[in-house]
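Duplicate of #3305? Posting structure anyway:
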């Protein structure tokens, strides 16, 4: 406590931290345990080290308040559900048989009899959580041993952790309804039964002297019903009313709290954490929120979702303005740092002028600490001396091209005209069969790529191996009898990485891994400058494949929006401007493929739905420019060139309308739930996708080999829904993670089922 006149040392904190380790130690430990028979004790020891090293290192940076409970062996959302005793019913029978950690892995990985919990994208980030399942008869109880023990361990070292826990409302809103729920039940109905478990946690934390707990309520940065907003008030009134508890910090992350902010400010919680970067709020507007002045404000001014250094001087001005209206300010991050790579300093070959602008998790902690010091003691001279935006990335020809884009460059001939022209060129049978691009990345190809990276293979040697593999992939497809072939994407390890490396304006990292889910990590490339294709990116591979066969080979490209969604993107211009630059690069590739004789081109945009703004008000504008970018990319195609769009399924009508607005000749859809669900949606939806459609007749991610009858049944249902004349028969996604022994019989069955449907059409032609 400070008395008037004394200088307040401003607080500093972060809302969460990566848990995979700077060198993906967690991934390696998990995979060793799962696949190589490592011992459970060894795995637990690795976890413990990652956990404790994190808070020790954070405390050593000078961060005033260090978050706890940020470690997870797989997913923190599920961890929270389990901490409150919400074991998904489907798995309950396994509990007595298994080591607790194996029981946990059974839920996230499934077993031959029980599919794993659903994987769901987390608030517009590239993190995915395993969705807890709650039934009407779920009972809650507290199992916080691990959280409490960590708090005690840290305390013994003089470090006061602030445990991070998912707030009760978000926990229920993020959960799915389990299989034995009553009709009309939704998990949020359980809120009154869940509260006592939270109060129990407060009591136990208070008993061991914990000062503060962080409750995350990110669900409130999306649109919520009036009832849910009211609930927020009642729940936090109830949680703050008890006397035996630590101070409560409630955070809204990944966006602005909107109407939830005054409600939270009206409760007796002590502190509120705001994301001030997704939706900057001025000090004046903060001052208008009744009750906020009396709270401690965790000002989330450091962006937890990008890799750019903050403009410290400008951020300090914002903080000082906030401080003038809200006295108790803690400098903080906009969200957990889970979504950024761990440490920039282990990267050694990012060009200096780019590296100078970057901050990963460790560096962002440094920014938080430095800003907190500056709020109290003033800024170092050099902050204001730094130029804030230097356009070292500007390419005049790219800017000129973007500003000269004409609307007609996005338009193609009317669909009926295209359809006739394409039929003539392609001469495909009814219900044509194809795949969506990738074939398995064999051990040989992976090895060759590795050796090429190590300079142990020359480009010519590596290239020859790729060409040989393409030939094998083409021969196999001819043998199976597919109608439209692909080259197999053998040259691409990860499609985003592959294209990023071939464009100016992108850099790749070596160790910039971010957790996608569980042991799965991605290394998003960094889009820092104006984008330009260096030279044709795919033409050599695809035209070689086409030279081997008389059947059409479909060229496969990744679309502009998906490139954005899976990269760390520059912030000095709006996303749509960057999207147009990417679209022009794809457009040039489309033109080059055509020139090389390719007649069908698929542009993958599985991430269009993933960048959808959390709140309704931003959605129409976003979808408009996303559609425009796609149309700019493919608008160069000739009438007789068939354009396919490969998309990720969404049940939101506005998104489905946008899919249709892409005006592609054929649309294929990745079914993240199940193909049957997608088929039902297509049948029942009023916002259908017109033109050709390939809803997916078997799930490419599933290890099971579908039989002919099963595929046939789906084809018939799909044909009933959309009509045989516009139906394509294909798996729902790429095949790169499959083995040949799974894929070959699956594709043979698929082709056989399509032939059955063709015979049916011949006997009963559609009238
Ligand atoms: C997530 S997009 C998947 C399609 C891609 N062309 C592939 O086959 O892997
Ligand atoms: Zn896909």
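Output from current build:
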């Amino acid at each position: 406590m400070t008395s008037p006149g004394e200088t307040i040392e401003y607080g500093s904190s972060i809302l969460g931290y990566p848990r995979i380790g700077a060198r993906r130690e967690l991934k390696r430990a998990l995979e060793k345990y799962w696949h190589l028979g490592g011992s459970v004790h060894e795995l637990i020891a690795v976890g413990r080290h990652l956990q404790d090293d994190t808070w020790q290192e954070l405390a050593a940076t000078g961060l005033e308040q260090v978050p706890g409970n940020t470690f997870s062996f797989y997913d923190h959302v599920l961890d929270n559900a389990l901490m409150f005793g919400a074991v998904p019913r489907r798995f309950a029978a396994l509990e007595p048989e298994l080591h607790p950690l194996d029981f946990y892995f059974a839920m996230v990985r499934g077993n031959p009899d029980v599919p794993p919990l659903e994987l769901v994208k987390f608030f517009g980030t590239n993190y995915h959580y395993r969705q807890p399942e709650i039934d009407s008869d779920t009972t809650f109880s507290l199992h916080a041993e691990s959280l409490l023990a960590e708090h005690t361990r840290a305390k013994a070292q003089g470090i006061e952790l602030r445990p991070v826990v998912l707030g009760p409302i978000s926990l229920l809103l993020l959960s799915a309804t389990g299989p034995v729920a009553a009709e009309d039940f939704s998990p949020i109905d359980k809120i009154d039964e869940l509260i006592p478990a939270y109060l129990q946690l407060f009591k136990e934390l208070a008993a061991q002297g914990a000062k503060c707990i962080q409750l995350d309520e990110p669900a409130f940065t999306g649109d919520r019903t009036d009832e849910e907003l009211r609930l927020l008030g009642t729940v936090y009134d109830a949680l703050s009313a008890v006397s035996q508890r630590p101070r409560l910090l409630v955070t809204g992350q990944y966006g602005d709290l909107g109407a939830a902010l005054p409600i939270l400010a009206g409760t007796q919680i002590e502190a509120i954490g705001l994301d001030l970067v997704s939706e900057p709020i001025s000090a004046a507007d903060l001052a208008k929120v009744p009750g906020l002045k009396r709270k401690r404000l965790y000002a989330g001014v450091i962006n937890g979702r990008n890799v750019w250094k903050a403009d410290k001087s400008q951020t300090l001005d914002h903080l000082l303005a906030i401080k003038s209206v809200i006295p108790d300010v803690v400098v903080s991050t906009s969200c957990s740092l889970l979504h950024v790579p761990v440490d920039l300093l282990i990267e050694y070959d990012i060009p200096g002028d780019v590296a100078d602008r970057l901050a990963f998790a460790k560096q962002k902690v440094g920014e938080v600490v430095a800003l907190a010091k500056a709020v109290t003691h003033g800024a170092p001279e050099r902050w204001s001396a730094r130029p804030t935006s230097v356009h070292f990335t500007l390419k005049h020809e790219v800017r000129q091209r973007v500003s000269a884009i004409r609307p007609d460059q996005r338009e193609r001939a009317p669909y009926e005209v295209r359809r006739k022209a394409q039929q003539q060129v392609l001469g495909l049978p009814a219900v044509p069969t194809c795949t969506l691009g990738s074939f398995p990345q064999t051990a040989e190809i992976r090895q060759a790529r590795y050796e090429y990276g190590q300079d142990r293979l020359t480009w010519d040697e590596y290239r020859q191996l790729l060409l040989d593999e393409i030939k094998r992939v083409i021969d196999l497809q001819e043998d199976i009898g597919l109608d439209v072939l692909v080259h197999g994407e053998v040259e691409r390890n990860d499609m985003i990485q592959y294209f990023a490396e071939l464009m100016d304006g992108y850099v790749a990292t070596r160790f910039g891994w971010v957790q996608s889910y569980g042991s799965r990590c991605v290394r998003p490339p960094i889009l820092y400058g104006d984008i330009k294709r260096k030279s044709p990116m795919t033409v050599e591979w695809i035209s070689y494949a086409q030279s081997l066969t008389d059947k059409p080979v479909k060229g496969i490209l990744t679309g502009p929006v998906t490139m954005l969604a899976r990269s760390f993107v520059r912030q000095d211009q709006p996303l749509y401007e960057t999207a147009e630059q990417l679209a022009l690069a794809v457009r040039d590739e489309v033109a080059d493929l055509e020139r090389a004789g390719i007649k069908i081109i698929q542009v993958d945009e599985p991430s269009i739905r993933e960048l959808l703004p959390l709140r309704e008000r931003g959605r129409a504008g976003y979808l408009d420019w996303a559609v425009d970018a796609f149309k700019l990319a493919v608008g160069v195609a000739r009438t007789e060139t068939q354009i396919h769009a490969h998309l990720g399924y969404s049940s939101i009508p506005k998104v489905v309308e946008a899919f249709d607005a892409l005006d592609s000749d054929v649309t294929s859809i990745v079914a993240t739930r199940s193909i049957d669900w997608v088929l039902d949606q297509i049948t029942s939806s009023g916002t259908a996708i017109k033109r050709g459609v390939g809803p997916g007749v078997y799930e490419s991610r599933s290890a099971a080999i579908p039989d002919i009858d099963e595929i046939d049944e789906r084809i018939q249902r799909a044909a009933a829904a959309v009509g045989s004349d516009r139906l394509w028969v294909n798996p729902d996604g790429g095949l790169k993670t499959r083995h040949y022994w799974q894929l070959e019989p699956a594709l043979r069955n698929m082709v056989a089922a399509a032939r059955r449907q063709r015979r049916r059409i011949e006997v009963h032609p559609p009238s």
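Confirmed duplicate; merging threads. Confidence is low (pLDDT under 50) at residues 1-7. Residues 604, 606, 646, 670, 733-734 surround zinc ion (ligand 2) (CB under 6 Å).
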